[in-house]
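lol ok so funny story. i was supposed to be doing the assay writeup but got distracted and ended up predicting the structure for this chain instead. priorities right. anyway since i did it might as well share w the group, maybe its usefull for someone
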Amino acid sequence: MPKPERIEPLRQLLDQLPLANQEILHRLVVFINRVAQHSENNKMDTPNLATMFGPNILRQHNQDPTDMLRDMQAIRLVMLTIVQCYRDLYQVSPRSLDRSPRSLAPTGY
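and the output, tada:
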């Protein structure tokens, strides 16, 4: 399990994402957890899923492949922390009370 001191700095970083990105990441992490719950059947436990999804979610735009390989372990660790601690990371904060997921819905329908 990730160290508790990693959660607050990570929460602060996630809070800086645009609202739509936060919502998409949250939904994706919930999905990843659901897949991991069936790891006995699908062989995709949380570390495997973090290894698979991490580079796709956390890579830099136009990142050099050599740099990506160098950063792979850190990316995996961050993604593993997000997946394992998503309930702690997505606690309702005073700032988030002003924002509703409904604000992401298209308007004009």
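Residues 92-109 have pLDDT under 50 and may be disordered. DSSP finds six helices and no strands in the chain.
back to the writeup now i swear
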